[in-house]
Amino acid sequence: MKILVQKFGGTSLASTELRSKVCNIVAQAKEDGYAPVIVVSAMGRENAAYATDTLINLVREVNPEPLPRELDILLSCGETICGVLLANQMTAQGMPATFLSGEQAGIVTDGKYGDAHIRYVKPYKIMECLEKGLVVVVAGFQGLSDDGEMTTLGRGGSDTTAAALGVALNAEYIDIYTDVEGVMTADPRIVDNARLLDSINYNEICQLARDGAKVVHPRAIEIAMQKGTPLRIRSTFFNSPGTFVSNQVYTINEPVKIINDRLITGITYTSNVVQITVPQSRKDHERKTDLMVFKAMAEADISVDFITVQPAALMFTVSREKAHRAEINLKELGLCPQMEFNCAKVAVVGAAMTGIPGIMFKVVEALEEKDIDILQAGDSYTNIWCLVKQEDMKRAVQALHDKFELGNY
Ligand code: ADP
Ligand code: MG
Q: Which end of the chain is more exposed for a tag (fewer CB within 10 A), N or C?
């Protein structure tokens, strides 16, 4: 049996008409001889009745810091509603389908509420249904822990479900259908001349995804990579081949081409970042402020990023959701954190940039030319990040995209 996993994001499923389009895509896959397994997200984006953000807001109205366990039970309903509708719509259109929850599909997680990892997959029930000729629709983003707790996989987690099923079922491809043409050199909502990358290797897309290009979840790539299952990122709305993600080289009777990473793959961003500066005096130094600060953040389960430790100050960033809690905890330690609330992180990503001189110069020049202040900067082998004010973010992404000549001209 040739299995194809097809994952559809929330915007692709937002209305009956759109779900009809999805039915046609699935019907085509069947016609091409595949047994399709469909992974769905919750329908629509914020303000849509059953979207994940709507459900979060619903419970926040009664408790600003919702109970994590109960929140996961609530959030899992979004995908369940969507999957049940889609399976019904398919069946009504003459394509018999069935729906499975994450649990029924055999997704077993490590039990961490809100950000669970998939530990293993027991795909037996899916196989049974496929053998009966049914299209199997699976709720993305959810799974049950070993001790029976409902957990969700974090934002973008349906991609992870799709990748895990693709690997577990030996699928030929994992297709991620979304609302853009494929993986581009920058978010096309921000950069008009962003260019489609028709093929990209696992390493490159992983770097882009980790740095905020939310078109696909980085964990999904890591999982697909384990077995070398190729992914295709494509649009639900137009018929185009999208982006092919693999490390495969097609050469028959020719010298074997070695895949190299691109110097610069694209520009990414992460919004809603808060910069925290904790000034230190010599006396603080003796008190080991750095140890106190990072211990407090760890104990409060607050992930810190962009860390700079200097004798005069500690600087780091946290997400906006965690900023308030971080500020309270630091003040309780007798520290005076300075909070810069409206920041964004922009990154130049390229897995082959290491050791190439002049890239940081170009980054600074691009931002300088547009009068954009760099609040903090950092780098790794594969990227250079700059923290900028949120209001400068779009211009910064465009300026960097232009400077590195990544677009369509
Ligand atoms: P879905 O609901 O289908 O999972 P997401 O919103 O999670 O969709 O991801 C698709 C979005 O990712 C696009 O609408 C686009 O705005 C954004 N995006 C960010 N960076 C990129 C990029 N480099 N290439 C393509 N899309 C990107
Ligand atoms: Mg997504």
A: C
- Report how far ligand 2's centroid is from the alpha carbon of 125 (Å): 26
Q: Nearest-CA neighbor of 144 among 97, 215, 202, 76?
A: 76
Ligand nearest the Cα of residue 220 is 2
Query: pLDDT tens, 214-229?
Result: 999 999 999 999 999 9
Query: Which of 176, 347, 199 shows the shortest CA–CA distance to 261?
Result: 199
Angle at CA of residue 277, ends 336 and 323, nearest 5°: 85
pTM > 0.70? yes
Mutate to test the pocket of ligand 1, among 141, 159, 185, 187 (most ligand atoms within 8 A of CB): 187
Ligand 1 pocket (Cβ < 6 Å) reads: 9-11, 41, 156, 178-180, 183-184, 186-187, 189, 208, 213-215, 266
The pLDDT tens digits of the residues spanning 116-155 come to 999 999 999 999 999 999 999 999 999 999 999 999 999 9
Residue ranges of domains in the chain, CATH in brackets:
3-179 (3.40.1160.10), 266-408 (3.30.2130.10)
